[in-house]
């Protein structure tokens, strides 16, 4: 897995800087600004690219919310971690993972990472890491910055396309920029779709795994087709997701929603 992760991250980084170099070396708006001594636009674009790369590595390398195993939990487990493992009255029984230990609600075992992940969303091959409770918000921030960099790169690449007399000469002169337009265009569409889907799911407090496998998940399959026990409304869902940086005991929220009389 380490080897695969290294190759994926190295490829992403290399492709990012090759595209950036092409945009700076060709006769684009960036090059024209440099020649006029106007460095604000080139510096800002460079900083956006650097920020996107830093966020990529942050999301790729950070702990997505791995559930502590029995051995590690005995040494490092926090009180909050311990409390979240204890079944509360009127809550569904915690599932036992066949590989790890009791699973907190909304956690899932990732076959690639070989660990259980809190509030599991999906395993992303692009970052070669799971997207879960701890890095999901940063994954969306990364997508936003990456989309900004991609759309800006599209605009810059288009500014460098040179008109010529013949098609053959046109392709020869603009070949690298056309390749950049193709690659960046495809990635832009992928990021737009990813970002749109994730923002929608966040707004209803649902994960990709829950959305796709609702009929197989023990705590959701008995709910109505339109019922989501974790949905607190769009504003509260977005606020909790982006601004609340603590472990949530989903069993308690589930219990209050499904058994409102017990919480009075």
From TrEMBL:
The keyword Transferase applies. Coiled coil: none annotated. One of its GO terms (molecular function) is protein-cysteine S-palmitoyltransferase activity. It is found in: Endomembrane system. The keyword Transmembrane helix applies. Its EC number is 2.3.1.225. It catalyses: L-cysteinyl-[protein] + hexadecanoyl-CoA = S-hexadecanoyl-L-cysteinyl-[protein] + CoA. Residues 95-213 form the Palmitoyltransferase DHHC domain. InterPro entries: Palmitoyltrfase_DHHC (IPR001594), PFA4/ZDH16/20/ERF2-like (IPR039859). Keywords: Acyltransferase, Lipoprotein, Membrane, Palmitate, Transferase, Transmembrane, Transmembrane helix. It is a multi-pass membrane protein. Belongs to the DHHC palmitoyltransferase family. The DHHC domain is required for palmitoyltransferase activity. This is Palmitoyltransferase.
